[in-house]
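User: quick one, fold this
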Amino acid sequence: MKSRVALIKGPDRYRNIAQALECIEEEIKLPPDGLLIKPNFVSTTNQLAATHVEAVRALLDFLGSRYGGSITIGEGAGLTDTLEGFRVFGYEPLIEKYGVRLMDLNRDRWVKVEVYDRNLAPLELRLAKTAWESPYRISIGPPKTHDTVIITLSLKNMIMGSLIRDQRGRNSTLFNTLSRVTPSWVKRAPFLEGLKRDVSTTVLRSDKSAMHQEYPAINLNLYTLAKYIAPQLSIIDGFLGMEGPGPGDGEPVELQVAIASTDFLAADTVAAKLMGYDIDEIGYLYYCKLKGLGVGDLEKIEIVGNARLEGCIRPFRPHPTYNQQLRWQIQNFERFL
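Assistant:
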């Protein structure tokens, strides 16, 4: 049986998301209670890098008559304060209108999970307990190029935002201030990537940064955690995507599409194709495909909606470190899967 992926193209972001969800309504099996919506706030000031509130509003309206339990909109921003993102991007009015809870996953209690360091030795990280225990996780965010794993879509959004970054102390405040005043060209500089990760890991005690253990390990780590906290519903808001030096400082790509599926790998596979990539070159998605965590073969995916895949493809310019990122292969990798 093929996995179904909704693909909708049109001039209205809200309507695209709503129609995509309606196309796969029969596959969406909601629990009685405990739903987590995970947006993407890799930046809390750059709307292009973050999940647009209209996409979330379309999702909440879809859920309205279909779900009567609690809804948490939870995110753990990568560098700055998540609560600032909720305010800047217009999420706070959702509390009164829809009765949702806005939650900073960085401030959540955590469970300890084991991944791998750059030497492929065990590494223990903290992951938000709300994401770990939620009976139903929804990932919603834009398609973007990435500085470490080539592209970021629904799976990576769910995992990375659920890892803990400490919020307390003067170091966090100082780092947030420096992040705001640092010129974009510095943030984009490929030769500073390692330094930025090391500073973020040690100064902020960020397990998001600690997850970035060079190209082979981070792809393996994303696959490892996908086995436990993959989204049950993936929504990719491709009304605007990001190319070039993503995931925070790239340039816009106007696709005007929405993708939705209860198979996260199928959704990410279709989105990757739209962006001009094959998931076999995306390490963490390749591992998920290899181990059957979803469907990663376009021939085994049924696309429904008002658009044809071939007519929506618009290749994204990759991150400047793209060629280095392709070096994610691990010798005898089967022993880790």
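User: anything notable?
Assistant: The mean pLDDT is 92.
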